[in-house]
Amino acid sequence: MTLALSIVDNADGTGAVATVSGSDAGSTNTVYTVAAGGTLWTSRGSRTGDGTVALSLSTGYHFAYCYGSLVSGSPALTPPTQRFAVTSGTQSVQERILLAVEADIRAIAPASLPGLPAAYVRAQMAPNEVPIGLPGVLITPQATDPNVGTLNNRDDFQKPAVVMIVDRNPKEYVARMGTYLLWRERIVRYFISQRLAGVPEVYSCRFEPAPIFDPKLPAYEFLVSAFTLRFLTREVRGV
Fold this sequence. Notes:
By secondary structure, this protein is mostly beta strands. The chain has 2 helices and 14 strands; from the N terminus they run ββββββββαββββαββ.
């Protein structure tokens, strides 16, 4: 047998339900989770044998794995799950996209974006001088979201996430150029033409360029490298 773990969002702000399968009848199976961008794995509950474990989690994005004490007679671990969402049931598709992009950039930052602390990545309504730590990454919805097509009882949209690599402008344009270009390239590669885990409405992503470097945007003596990720969504019609 192979130990397996699946997660289903409660969609009411209370957490999620984990389902464990593939263990022996007497196995103690413990589910651990970590918030996207976090480093501390926490035990969220155990059960004997296969079945469900209620996970009390805050809204946001998380990873999980299961440790089973007996799987074909030996201890076993599942691989970490794909990032999953815990939602309240009252969040818009746009908000969930912004938070998912924030979570994914935080998750890849340590290995793929050298020098970018996960805590310096933030989704917010518009760029401002709220300190996130610099250099950092801001994700905002400051772009249009046109309707791009219709189906029976469904409509397709392009939901924007404007990604801005921001730093206080040192008026020195050589030393960190390579770092910012690498961050930009790897973030685009991560999202382009992909679905967005935890946002089932998203079926692809397009890249819309902006000036690679702009020392005047936004108007707070920031140096900015920006682009727009346009997430293609298929959504129900009506409310």
